């Protein structure tokens, strides 16, 4: 094992061979920090016709909820196990910047006023970040902890068409540059095993995203076919990876291609079992994550190793 890993990365990675966001947050806030998924009642322009219809083919249309009571309920539960934990509110469902700046301001600050909430995580599309919205995010970023998540899934426009993402890579590049100029932390979401993509294409997406200037984080997971998605209708027998081993082999290579400054937010999917069609083994999150750790140990490697 290299001295650089032993002396620098081991402590930063909190015992892992990659940089988990949990380690970053523990150091930043001084305590375990938990993301509370909330539903801000937003929709998606790729569903209502303003950008496209039907949504990305893998996306299941999950319903909305009353977020303020959810926060209380979730904190009460977590407090039993982690009494000193800190909390971030995660606007996760649909496109969470898809509203007027006035409405967004109201929704974001309503949550930020909650005494237990330290900051926000906002999941959105790169084509829903105009200047007024970026100004609002910049303002919040100066006062609170914030990161923005962009669902890119792939850098390849031909795949983007196939999955009905309804924006081009150029749009993503502009959003990334706008966020970076405003010093807003950004996390990019990639999906492995999209239809039509081979291993080289997936690795190219990971390498390209990994090379983005000052990128804060990456989320990776396998494509899941879920009940109620367009993917289920289009490709009912589709399976992104035939085995855990095949998936783990790819993910360990991806990890080695991501710079060690970038936090890793996800390495496998989290689909509720009743909704999952394939890969059938993918509900077993703990086994997949353990297998990734084992493989990295076996190869005696770590995040960024292949970058030299
Ligand atoms: S994945 Fe995101 S952008 Fe695509 S349809 Fe679902 S909510 Fe909209």
Question: How would you describe the overall organization of this protein?
Answer:
The chain is α/β, with parallel strands linked by helices and 308 residues long. The chain has one domain (3-302): TIM Barrel, CATH 3.20.20. The protein is built from eleven helices and nine strands. It has helices spanning 3-12, 21-29, 67-81, 101-112, 131-143, 157-162, 169-181, 199-210, 230-234, 244-256, 285-298; strands spanning 33-38, 86-91, 117-124, 145-153, 185-192, 217-222, 225-226, 263-266, 276-278. The strands form two sheets. The protein has a seven-stranded parallel sheet, sandwiched between helices. Helix 10 packs across helix 11. The two termini are 14 Å apart. Residues 63-68 have low confidence and may be disordered. The structure holds iron/sulfur cluster (SF4).
Instruction: List the uncertain runs.
Output: 63-68
Query: Based on DSSP secondary structure assignment, what is the total number of beta strands?
Result: 9
Order of helices and strands: HHEHEHEHEHHEHEEHHEEH
Largest sheet: 7 strands, parallel
CATH third-tier fold name: TIM Barrel
Describe the oligomeric state of these chains in a short phrase. Answer: single chain
Bound molecules: iron/sulfur cluster
Q: What structural category characterises the helix and strand content?
A: alpha/beta
The appropriate CATH architecture is Alpha-Beta Barrel
Secondary structure tally, helices? 11
């Amino acid at each position: 094992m290299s001295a650089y890993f032993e002396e620098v990365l081991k402590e930063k990675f909190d015992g892992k061979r990659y940089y988990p966001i949990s380690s970053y947050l523990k150091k930043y806030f001084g305590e375990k920090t938990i993301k509370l998924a909330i539903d801000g009642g937003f929709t998606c322009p790729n569903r209502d016709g303003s950008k496209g219809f039907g949504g990305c083919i893998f996306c299941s249309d999950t319903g909305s909820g009353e977020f303020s009571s959810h926060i209380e309920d979730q904190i009460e539960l977590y407090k039993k196990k982690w009494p000193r934990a800190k909390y971030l509110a995660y606007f996760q469902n649909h496109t969470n910047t898809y509203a007027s700046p006035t409405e967004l301001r109201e929704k974001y600050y309503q949550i930020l006023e909650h005494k237990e909430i330290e900051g926000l995580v906002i999941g959105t599309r790169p084509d829903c970040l105009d200047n007024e919205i970026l100004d609002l995010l910049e303002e919040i970023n100066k006062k609170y902890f914030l990161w923005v998540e962009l669902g890119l899934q792939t850098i390849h426009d031909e795949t983007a068409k196939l999955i009905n993402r309804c924006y081009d890579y150029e749009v993503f590049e502009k959003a990334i540059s706008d966020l970076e100029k405003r010093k807003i932390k950004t996390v990019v979401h990639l999906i492995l095993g999209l239809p039509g993509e081979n291993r080289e294409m997936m690795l190219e997406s990971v390498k390209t995203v990994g090379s983005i200037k000052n990128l804060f984080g990456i989320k990776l997971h396998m494509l899941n076919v879920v009940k109620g998605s367009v993917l289920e209708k289009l490709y009912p027998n589709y399976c992104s990876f035939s085995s855990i081993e095949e998936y783990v082999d790819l993910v360990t290579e991806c990890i080695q291609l991501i710079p060690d400054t970038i936090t890793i937010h996800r390495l496998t999917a989290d689909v509720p079992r009743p909704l999952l069609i394939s890969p059938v083994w993918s509900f077993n999150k703990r086994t997949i994550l353990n297998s990734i750790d084992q493989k990295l140990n076996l190869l005696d490697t770590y995040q960024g190793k292949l970058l030299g």
